[in-house]
Amino acid sequence: MSEFDALCANDGDLADLRVRVRQFVAEDRDRFGWEPAIDSWLTSWDAGFSERLADAGFVGLTIPTEYGGHGLGFLHRYVVTEELLGAGAPVAAHWFADRQVAPSLLSYGSEEQRTRLLPGIAAGRLYSAIGMSEHGAGSDLAATATRATRTEDGWRINGTKVWTSGGHRAHFAIVLARTSALDPEHRHAGFSQFIVALDSPGVTISPIVTLDGHHHFNEVTFDDVAVGDADVLGEVGAGWHQVTAELGFERSGPERILSTATLIIGVIKALGGQDVDDRTAAEVGDLLGRAMALRQLSVSVARALSAGEDAATRAALVKDLGTRFEQQSVELCADLLEYVRSEQDAARLRAVLATARQHSPMFTLRGGTNEVLRGVIARGLGVR
């Protein structure tokens, strides 16, 4: 396979899958009237869309058929994700469960957990949040203070998680907690993961409303929340290893380069309907060239995951370079928007630009700050 063919990600049955997803999205938007959005994987929650998407066969692609999924590979999910984000589709409801929780259950979950949770995830009807970040422990997860204490019949969890996307709508959260005393010489030891129902007694969910008035972040407090042994995910004490693998799925996907896709595509389409000067054409070419280079890196990670390879370092690199590109693309598009002559197109795109500017500061924070990720990359390359 040539490098160009690999970049296209249309080999085998991927091209047919791409066409089918594109058709579904166009028809669903025409019928239900949703509008393409910036950052749709984080902010655009539409349970009905997630259910229809799953019924069409486009959720749970990497989940084995015995658990209600489709038994396909990460490249299949990559293609579906790319088409959905390029269209700004409202995918937030099922996003975290399908992207992170399902692979974690398949890697570390018990058979009972897989049987209980995976069919609902594949059906687009079971929603999950991720309980990692805390006050004072955002990107430095080793500073996590939430604690799980052993009891006669399970565990008691106490602590607070913050920036919990979709926590007010999710059915459960995967919570990282310390299960043994801190060892200053081994800060990453002694963590475990728990599957916690968010309607459990002792769980308090408080909204965090962003400057644009939207509520998708939350602060989640756990006050003596009882969790049984059946809801320990993986091995007690192996939480750090598990969460590091999980972050690979979070950091490497096309959402790290396509959060602003609706703005970029909209501006280029508007300019495509008119004559432009050489300078404008060069700026468009630079924008697309950078996007294509990042996409090539992101596709390579998807291919590595499909082959069962460790892609943690490359995933961190995708997230670092991709989210910086997303931020820079906002102002690049703002400059290009000045050349759009259609006032109707310009007015519509200015509204999209305003939303992109509000979200831009978050791009390099979520999933680990870029400064922390550069340390991950350096260690992965053998630098100490």
TrEMBL record:
PROSITE patterns: ACYL_COA_DH_1 (PS00072). The keyword Oxidoreductase applies. The keyword Protein biosynthesis does not apply. Residues 17-124 form the Acyl-CoA dehydrogenase/oxidase N-terminal domain. Its cofactor is FAD. GO terms for molecular function: acyl-CoA dehydrogenase activity; flavin adenine dinucleotide binding. Keywords: Flavoprotein, Oxidoreductase. Residues 129-225 form the Acyl-CoA oxidase/dehydrogenase middle domain. InterPro entries: Acyl-CoA_DH_CS (IPR006089), Acyl-CoA_Oxase/DH_mid-dom (IPR006091), Acyl-CoA_Oxase/DH_mid-dom_sf (IPR046373), AcylCo_DH-like_C (IPR036250), AcylCoA_DH/ox_N (IPR013786), AcylCoA_DH/ox_N_sf (IPR037069), AcylCoA_DH/oxidase_NM_dom_sf (IPR009100), Mycobact_Acyl-CoA_DH (IPR052161). It comes from the Bacteria. GO terms for cellular component: plasma membrane. This is Acyl-CoA dehydrogenase. It comes from Mycolicibacterium diernhoferi. The lineage of its organism: Bacteria, Bacillati, Actinomycetota, Actinomycetes, Mycobacteriales.
